[in-house]
Amino acid sequence: MAHAHDHDPDHGHAHDHDHEHSELGEMDLRVRALETVLSEKGYIDPAALGVLIDTYQTRIGPRNGARVVARAWVDSAYRDWLLRDATAAIASLGYTGRQGEHMVAVANGPGQHHMVVCTLCSCYPWPVLGLPPTWYKSAPYRSRAVKDPRGVLSDFGVTLPEGTEIRVWDSTAEVRYLVIPERPAGTEGLTEDQLADLVTRDSMIGTGLAKAIAA
Description:
The chain is mainly alpha-helical and 215 residues long.
């Protein structure tokens, strides 16, 4: 069963997790070397490549997760299924693949806020969130998210009501998490597509909130 982080350095991470981390590191080096060679030969424009990566990372990828969240906001039966068996519920919308085989959804609510981290490397639910942001993989975030989650949220511009419990979930090679942010007030008349536009990548990691509708 999924569990929150209890600040044990080995908590929830199997040995193959470290192995996966080393493989990803080597692959990253190979990709960077290939990118350099192709750029030097004039086959690719680094600026255009950057735009493409940013588009997938911040727009296309997270749209999948946003649709999952929007469905959960409008369909209570789907929400219950998502919280009970996130892998199957997400797959029912067509979002499957590597890094998303074993999903767990956790829902924010009054007095409760969830945030996701991977303390040993950068395990991340690619099928619903796309590419992980650079800060998610950084050592400062991975350490501070556990030790000072409220401070990290403040850095992201998020101030929660005093007394709100913050639970930090540690992703592993086996389990990845999706945060269901609270539905913004005043959105009762919006369509599911319009609601999905309010769901941000950061809100599904827990370092942000869903967008409020314009006044």
